[in-house]
Each structure stands twice: as structure tokens, then as C-alpha cells.
Specification:
The complex is a heterodimer of chains A (383) and B (389). Chain A contains 14 helices and twelve strands. Chain A has 383 residues and is of the alpha+beta class. The chains are: A alpha+beta (383), B alpha+beta (389). At the A-B interface, helix 2, helix 9 and helix 10 of A face helix 2, strand 5, strand 6, helix 9 and strand 15 of B.
Chain lengths: 383, 389
């Protein structure tokens, strides 16, 4: 581009202003990316939910239990590939602040249903053979610095008198889905059932089943719920994503909050850059008139102003995204398990950059059009 | 010698387009800052107001919330004679409560929310004396009747007086609405504690928590010592207000950390905007400033004058930001308490203190955005600035 030198020379005319404008872009893009990451962290559970999985809970509510005996009846329904059952353990590790989800799992079937959660075979074998064994997600293990072989005490008041349950960490699981949950803690159903009071033995929190074919979801869900209708424990069967979405909705309207803040940021950014571009064009009215007078076309002048704001937007945008890439893992650690894992995807980065260029073009357009329509005679006379 | 403030007022007026950009940048930042904090405040205030200084909540030792604890009827009988508990017409002011959550659709979205159901004893209104029946009547002990909180009444479907709802295996008649003064109880459904357990196939001899009215706030110590040292009991007592304020920590921390981060980052952007405005104000006014210096105004008074101008702009921005979010005050929204996983309605709470904080935050951004340009203005060489143009 033979005019690139001209564009750059103009950019550096006022260095402080250039730095500040680039800075505003960088800040806005950083914030934009940050909000996008938080929003996706909240909705990820729904997006990653297996399309071929159903969750069965007690119709009376998630905290009510379901009999273990339902398992065989569920397995008889055609189209069901595998069933596993889970309980909420709800123990406390050292301090209440260290919250993480703990699930009591059905060792024989968990891996057939939760196929994306991978445990090395050797470690899994150790876990299965160890009644007090436990499996931790990779993120969770990292959070507390746990290693395989560590002994983990969890204080629990949910089942019988308060006591401390001891577990041996035998395995670490990882999630095949990028950004999938790696913060759970699993323990064995057998050990759990042996150590809880007689009256609640044989009670399941919820079942998760895997379908032969995702298209059967509605039919199988209906078959289960009608099969247990009018029994002592009625069930409610949903796809895993509907189950997760219902849970996420109750968290409050996070999406609206984030979109509102994003809107405020967008509007402010547009004003700041639009204003800067307008000032810098206004200062240069006579120069642009000279350009036109010596034969540059109207369209060139427009292009010239637009190019300048686009370059600012591009540089600012790249800096903002770069900062986001560096800072988001740090923020994730600082939030200490309060939020699901924060992940910055390539799609978000490219969308952010496109967003920056759009703002750059929009803010350069108005002053650019003004410059294009400039009448040489008037402009030269003005100064 | 000080430069009159009128000069700044007039110069902001003369350059209002660029001042407006800085004003909006600061207003947006202050708005987000105040809105996020008021959300956290509202949530906390709702939970904290649920507790009372005069009440103590007794749960299984080590339990972190009502949902994770359990107290058997044997323990309740022992607790009835524990010291420090106030007495009413029919015995000790003690309510042994069954607490569980049931899915009830939200009116706004039609999706299920986890609503907290509380089985209480018949003298509960004497113990939680802030709670008043505002419509219909209290449930009759022994009958399958419920009363609903005023937020539950308008947030969830089917909770109007005269309607029948099903909880567990039993149908319940809604007979009244109670007002618990904007606390978490306003999102709950209350019924007879002896009937709730059996409706969910649970024994009616098992409770989640026991709440008692103390003879005086100081009696907690006495009660706590008595129940923790009794070998027949495995429970702990804490002041109700402490329990509820602890319940709010997880969500409050999340909102405060996220809100603080977002407002902090936005503040950097707003300071950049203010710097840009002030720098262009300084560079456009090179001659003016040099003239003032030549007239005898010293460097410090020029700095002072520009800082005043930046403060003026940021003050207006702060005010606009505060006014823009003011309609949020009292607006009710719902969220899930991350500690009990039950849904609760609460309102944004914008206090004067929060608004003052917002304006101070704006002025702080103004100083950051105005100081460097002001110093540059004061250090312009007079002779060359006067010669310019």
C-alpha cells in the first residue's frame, strides 16, 4: 500500500491521543471478552450436555430420593443402553469455602454413561478395588494440590451424626470436551451405602441413563415416567440439557445482566473513538483540503480517514484480546471455584476482533464522510 | 491566585461535545458499579433480615446449612427444657422445622424453581415476630393448609389464596399470605411441620433445624453451653442473624468480585476517555493558558483549575450514572442461593451510602483523568504558546 506511510505519519501526530484511543479499545475488548467468557461459563453445562442422556429425578424435587430398585425396571425399557445412579454427598473439605460437588457413583456403570470423563485404566482398577477410593477431576486436584495416593477427609452432617469420612485419592479424571467439568469428586456407592443410617439405605439421588439413539429421548422419558406414575415415588425424566438449563435459569438472569453491561461498554466505546476521530479530522481540515486540491478523489479521503480508525481499532483490539488471553486464567484462579472453568475460545477471539473493526469503521465513518463532502474552497478559506 | 470556577464552567460549555463523551464514559462506569453492588447488597440484606438477634437456630453439630442438618424428636424434647429459651402461653417458644425444596414453576419463565417449603410449629409467629399475615389467615395445625410468603405469592404459579397445590403426595390448600419484611421467608411456603415430612414419605420425628426465641439476646451463651455440653445431644446453636448472614456469602462474593472486576476495567476505559477529553481541551487552549500565565496566574493555579474542570465533568458523570440506575432500587429479581440451592426473590437495594460511593468513584476517575493534562497545561512554555497560531 503506497499510502500506508501517510496513514502512519498521521497516526503518530499526537502520540498521547493515539495511546489513549488504543487503550480505550484494548480495555473495551478486554471487558467484552471477559463478559463473553463468563457468560459461556454459565451456559456451558447446557451446551455440553450429552444429547443421548436422560436424567431421572424424583418428581417431588431433586433433593428427594428414588429407590435403588427402579434400576432394573429402567433397564427393561427398550432403547436404554446403560444406567448409572448418583447421590449428592455434600461433605466439607477443611472449610465451607472449599465447596466442590461430590457424587456417590455406581462404579460398574458410571463410565458407560459418562463417556467423556476419562480415567486411566490402571487408576480406575485401583479405585474399583479400594472401598474408600475416590476420583477427583483434574481441575479439582490442581486446586488443592492433591496427588494420587493422598488421603482426603470430608466432614459430613447429611447422613447420620456428623462425622469425618476418609477417602484415598486413587484416580484423576479428565474431560474429553474442551471446557467440560473437571471439578467433581467421586466416591463409591457401596462404601457410602454401608455407612449411612438404616432408614435411608438403598436410596438413590438421581439416575442418568444413556440411550441407544438420541431420537428415542421423548419416547423413553415418557415410558419411564408413566411406568412409575401412581407409585410411591413418581419420577421426572428430562434430557440432560433440559435438566441443566432448568438449573441455570434459577441462578437468575445472568445473560441479561451481561448483555446490559456489554451494551453500555459498546456505546461508551463508540462515543470515545468517534469523538477522537472527529477531533483529529477537525484539526486537519486544511490538510485534507490540500489533499483534495492537489487531485486526490473524495473517495480516497474517505478511505484515508477510515483506514486510520481501522488501524487504531485493530491494534487496540489485538492488545485487548492479548491481555484477555493472559489474564483470564489468573481471574479463574482468583474466583476460586465460584464459577465453572473460564475458557477463551478461538471463536470468541475472532468475534471480538470483528467487533473491534466494526466499531473502528463506525467511528471513522461519520468524520470520514464529513471529510469526503468537504468543499475545498471553504476548507482552505477557514484557516 | 486562583482562577475563578466560572472560567471552567464556561469552557466546559464551549466544548460540550467532547465533555459529553467523558461524562457518558464515567456515567456508564458508575452505573455498572452501583448496580452490581446494589444487587449484592439486596441479596445480603434479604438473608440477613431473615435472622433476628433474639432468636437462635439449633442444628446438628457441623451442619453448614439447614439442608445438611437433622435433629431427631428426642433431641427436640430435650431442647424444650434448655435454659435461655423464652416461654409463651403454651410452652417454650420453639419451632422444630422440616425444610425441603419443591419444584414450582416461575410465573415469569414457566420453568421450575426450587422453592423452599418449611414445616413449622403452630407458635411460629410468636418466635418470628416480624412475620405478619397480610391476606387470609394462618394455617390450622393438623390440617393440610399452607401460607405463602408475599414474594412466593407473586413469583410462582398457583400460590394464590383459595388455590390447591400438591406437595409430595398430599394436596394442600393455600389459606393465607404472610409478609416477612422483605426477608428470605417471603419466598417460602409454610405449613404444619408434623404433616410435611409424611407427605414426602419421611418420618414425622425428624427435623432439619430448631429455632427458638431467647429470653434476651445475651441468653445465647447460656443456651449454647447447655446444648453443646449435654451428652445426649449432638447439636450446636448459633444466633439466627449470624446463620443467615453466613448463608449469603457465596453468591455475594461472586457478585462483588465480578462486579468489582467489571467496574474496575470499565473505570480504566473511562479514565482514558477523560484523559483524551482533557488533553484535547489543553491542546486547544494553549493560547488561553499562556495568556493566563502571562497575566500572572501561577502554575499551581492552572493545575488546580484544570483538575477542577475534570472534577466537574466527572461529578456530572457520576450523578448521571447514579440517577440512571436509581429506578433499579426496589426492583425484585430472583436468584438461586448457592448454599441451599433454593430459589429466592430479592430486590436491588440502592442506599445513599452506595450513591455517595459511586460519586466518589467518579471523582477519583476525574482526578486520574485530569491531573496529567493539567500538569502539562501548566508546564507549557509561555512565550512559544503565545506565539502559536
Amino acid at each position: 500500500m503506497k499510502f500506508s506511510r501517510l496513514v502512519f505519519a498521521n497516526l503518530f501526530r499526537k502520540k498521547v491521543r493515539l495511546i489513549l484511543t488504543i487503550g480505550s479499545f484494548a480495555v473495551a475488548l478486554f471487558l467484552f471478552t471477559f463478559l463473553a467468557v463468563v457468560k459461556s461459563a454459565f451456559s456451558r453445562g447446557t451446551e455440553l450436555a450429552g444429547a443421548d442422556r436422560l436424567v431421572i429425578i424424583n418428581r417431588a424435587g431433586l433433593i428427594q430420593v428414588i429407590p435403588l430398585a427402579y434400576r432394573d425396571k429402567i433397564l427393561q425399557i427398550p432403547g436404554v443402553k446403560a444406567v448409572t445412579h448418583n447421590n449428592w454427598f455434600g461433605g466439607v473439605y477443611q472449610d465451607e469455602k472449599n465447596f466442590f460437588p461430590q457424587f456417590v457413583i455406581d462404579v460398574e456403570n458410571q463410565r458407560q454413561v459418562m463417556t467423556e470423563m476419562k480415567v486411566p485404566d490402571e487408576q480406575w482398577k485401583n479405585f474399583v478395588n479400594d472401598r474408600q477410593g475416590a476420583v477427583a477431576g483434574a481441575t479439582l486436584a490442581k486446586r488443592f494440590g492433591w496427588k494420587v495416593g493422598d488421603r482426603i477427609p470430608l466432614k459430613n452432617a447429611l447422613y447420620g451424626p456428623t462425622k469425618t469420612w476418609e477417602f484415598n485419592l486413587d484416580a484423576i479424571y479428565t474431560n474429553d470436551h474442551p471446557g467440560g467439568d473437571e471439578s467433581q469428586f467421586w466416591l463409591q456407592w457401596k462404601y457410602f451405602d454401608e455407612n449411612i443410617p438404616q432408614v435411608i439405605k438403598g436410596s438413590i439421588g438421581w439416575y442418568v441413563l444413556k440411550l441407544e439413539n438420541p431420537d428415542d429421548a421423548v419416547r423413553v422419558a415418557k415410558a419411564i415416567d408413566t411406568g412409575f406414575a401412581n407409585s410411591s415415588t413418581e419420577t421426572k425424566t428430562e434430557t440432560e440439557s433440559a435438566f441443566q438449563a432448568g438449573f441455570a435459569k434459577q441462578l437468575g438472569n445472568i445473560e441479561f445482566l451481561i448483555l446490559t453491561i456489554g451494551g453500555v461498554v459498546f456505546f461508551t466505546l463508540l462515543l470515545v473513538t468517534g469523538n477522537t476521530m472527529a477531533i483529529s479530522v477537525r484539526e486537519r481540515t486544511s490538510e485534507l483540503a490540500v489533499l483534495k486540491a492537489i487531485g486526490f478523489t473524495d473517495r480516497f479521503v474517505l478511505f484515508f480517514v477510515l483506514a486510520e480508525s481501522l488501524v487504531i481499532a485493530l491494534i487496540g483490539g489485538l492488545i485487548g484480546l492479548g491481555l484477555a488471553v493472559l489474564a483470564i486464567p489468573v481471574v479463574g484462579v482468583a474466583l476460586n471455584g465460584l464459577l465453572p472453568r473460564l475458557i477463551l475460545s478461538a471463536a470468541m477471539l475472532s468475534f471480538g476482533l470483528g467487533f473491534a473493526l466494526l466499531v473502528g469503521a463506525a467511528s471513522g465513518l461519520l468524520p470520514g464522510l464529513g471529510a469526503m463532502r468537504l468543499r475545498v474552497v471553504d476548507a482552505l478559506r477557514r484557516v | 491566585m486562583a482562577i475563578p470556577v466560572v472560567y471552567n464552567l464556561r469552557s466546559v460549555k464551549a466544548r460540550w461535545t467532547s465533555a459529553i463523551v467523558a461524562v457518558i464514559g464515567i456515567a456508564g462506569t458508575v452505573g455498572v458499579f452501583v448496580a452490581m453492588l446494589s444487587l449484592a447488597r439486596g441479596f445480603r440484606a434479604t438473608l440477613v433480615s431473615s435472622g433476628s438477634e433474639d432468636n437462635a437456630i439449633i442444628m446438628r453439630a457441623g451442619a453448614t446449612s439447614e439442608m445438611t442438618g437433622g435433629v431427631g424428636i428426642d433431641s427436640v424434647k430435650i431442647l424444650q427444657d434448655a435454659p435461655g429459651i423464652a416461654r409463651g402461653a403454651d410452652g417454650p417458644l420453639l419451632t422444630a422445622e422440616v425444610v425441603l425444596v419443591a419444584p414450582i414453576p416461575l410465573l415469569s419463565t414457566g420453568t421450575d424453581a426450587n422453592v423452599q417449603i418449611r414445616g413449622v410449629s403452630k407458635n411460629v409467629l410468636e418466635i418470628r415476630n416480624k412475620v405478619k399475615i397480610v391476606e387470609g389467615r394462618m394455617f390450622q395445625p393438623g390440617l393440610t393448609e399452607v401460607v405463602v410468603g408475599k414474594n412466593a405469592n407473586v413469583s410462582y404459579s398457583g400460590l394464590t389464596v383459595g388455590n390447591t397445590i400438591s406437595l409430595g403426595s398430599v394436596k394442600w390448600k393455600v389459606v393465607g399470605v404472610f409478609d416477612a419484611g422483605g426477608s428470605a421467608f417471603d419466598s417460602e411456603i409454610w405449613c404444619d411441620g408434623h404433616l410435611l415430612g409424611p407427605a414426602y414419605n419421611r418420618p414425622d420425628t425428624f427435623f432439619q433445624s430448631v429455632t427458638v426465641h431467647l429470653v434476651s439476646p445475651d441468653a445465647l451463651r447460656q443456651l449454647k453451653d447447655a446444648v453443646t455440653s449435654d451428652p445426649r445431644l449432638n447439636v450446636d446453636a448459633s444466633r439466627e442473624i449470624d446463620y443467615y448472614s453466613k448463608q449469603s456469602t457465596r453468591l455475594t462474593t461472586l457478585i462483588t468480585v465480578l462486579g468489582g472486576l467489571v467496574a474496575g476495567i470499565m473505570a480504566i476505559g473511562a479514565v482514558f476517555g477523560a484523559l483524551n477529553t482533557m488533553y484535547s481541551a489543553v491542546s486547544e487552549r494553549g493560547r488561553e493558558i499562556a495568556t493566563m500565565r502571562a497575566l500572572g496566574f501561577g502554575g499551581p493555579s492552572v493545575v488546580f483549575s484544570f483538575v477542577i474542570e475534570a472534577l466537574l465533568i466527572s461529578f456530572v458523570g457520576g450523578l448521571i450514572g447514579c440517577i440512571a440506575v436509581l429506578p433499579l432500587n426496589g426492583l425484585t429479581t430472583g436468584a438461586m442461593n448457592l448454599q441451599t440451592f433454593s430459589h429466592m426473590a430479592f430486590a436491588f437495594k440502592i442506599t445513599t451510602e452506595l450513591l455517595v460511593k459511586g460519586v466518589i468513584f467518579a471523582l477519583f476517575m476525574g482526578v486520574l483523568g485530569g491531573l496529567a493534562p493539567a500538569i502539562r497545561a501548566a508546564s507549557l512554555p509561555i512565550s512559544s504558546a503565545l506565539r502559536e497560531l
